[in-house]
Amino acid sequence: MNLPAPKPEQQNPSAVPAAAAAGRSLDTHLRRYAARTAGMTASEIRALFAVASRPEVVSLAGGMPYLAALPLETLSADVAQLLATEGQTALQYGSAQGIPALREQICQIMALEGISAHPDDVTVTVGSQSGLDMVTRIFCDPGDVVVAEAPSYVGALGTFTAYQAEVVHVPLDDEGLIPAELERTLSALAAAGRRVKFLYTIPNFHNPAGVTLAVHRRAEVLEICARHGVLVVEDNPYGMLGFDGQTYPALRSMESENVVYLGSFSKTFAPGLRVGWALAPHAVREKLVLAAESATLCPPTFTQAVVSRYLAQHDWMGQIKTYREVYRERRDAMIGALEAHLPAGCRWTRPDGGFYVWLTVPEGIDTKAMLPRAVTQRVAFVPGTAFFGDGTGNSQLRLSFCYPTPERIREGVRRLATVLEGELELISTFGQVVRRQPTGPQSPSPDTA
Ligand SMILES: Cc1ncc(COP(=O)(O)O)c(C=O)c1O
């Protein structure tokens, strides 16, 4: 066989500029990717967050729990004892559904929000993010619709897009999802012949909106979804973090056959353990376990054992109370600073729990365009566009109060106020800024989650 003569760079590979080679390799892989990867795009703001993590920047962006509130010395002694006494099982493969003792403890936790569940219907997940992934994988075909609040959790939007589902938003107000808007949206989608697979909702201390679905709306939301044949996916990582110790009846406590409930230890204990769970209707449970098995074989036995031991041996409710107190103080610091410093025309939500405040800025300011200027002024936030599947949300942004100290929060809000005033000045000098074309949802980074 006559092979073509090698090109000069093939004769001497070291002569090929590395960047050109990398570009060619990228092209080759681009052609190989599955169509579904088209929706997996890195957020444009990722690079900015690398700068925002510098110590001089007050980051009001990330939703990172304040782990300094954990008794780390006691926990490390516990982990050492776990390895010494149960190491061989704790480090072994386990069941795809999760270790039975932990599933029983999870049922006791869910009982605090009125849920009566059997451990057989609980599947332990690698954080609730992997629960979201599995639920979307088993229910959504390309082109299916997922209905979600406007705004919604960035990580969920990224997952829905990765499975080529289309997100249709339903507005919320200070009492959460608006039932009449849900009814209107589902009727319009049915009339258009669209296949809606589920409503994705975060009823308690919403990320990013900070609001809670009013108790009197809950039955109505369930009734509307049941009537339209739409499953409800209830994502509840913040439900135990009500600042006055209040909890709300889970949607799953009111309806067991049409709700998949997702829970997590990320906000009430620690996210690095990556332990969450899904409580599914009995008929769905088997598919969910099969999906879990294909993704991870089994959730990590070790971290499940750590969580189970922690729940059995520690005052975990006391720890949650400590977290609530820390976050309540930080919420107060943030709300106080917003009231003291923000220019007229700004509006914000007043969360009773969780991590986030949702801020609406005066007309004409584009929060995504403003972010680089804010980072220059040493304050970071997440622009509202991250939380919409259709690229809207330019007039909004999310502020997190979970991680910085109250003093840093006050300083961060002071800096943000200066940035907003600068934007208003620009607008009054040059007129309304030109809006960018909306883009679709992008994959979250831990900074935006
Ligand atoms: C609403 C919501 N769902 C799910 C997650 C993911 O949580 P986990 O760490 O359990 O995967 C987050 C994390 O911020 C969240 O805010």
Automatic annotation (TrEMBL):
Keywords of the record: Aminotransferase, DNA-binding, Pyridoxal phosphate, Transferase
GO molecular function, one term: DNA binding
Single biological process term from Gene Ontology: alpha-amino acid metabolic process
Residue ranges of every copy of the Aminotransferase class I/classII large domain listed in the record: 79-416
Keyword DNA-binding: yes
Region (Disordered): 1-21
Matching Pfam families: Aminotran_1_2
Cofactor or coenzyme needed: pyridoxal 5'-phosphate
Keyword Aminoacyl-tRNA synthetase recorded: no
Family membership: Belongs to the class-I pyridoxal-phosphate-dependent aminotransferase family.
Complex formation: Homodimer.
Name of this protein: DNA-binding transcriptional MocR family regulator
Organism: Crossiella cryophila
Lineage: Bacteria, Bacillati, Actinomycetota, Actinomycetes, Pseudonocardiales
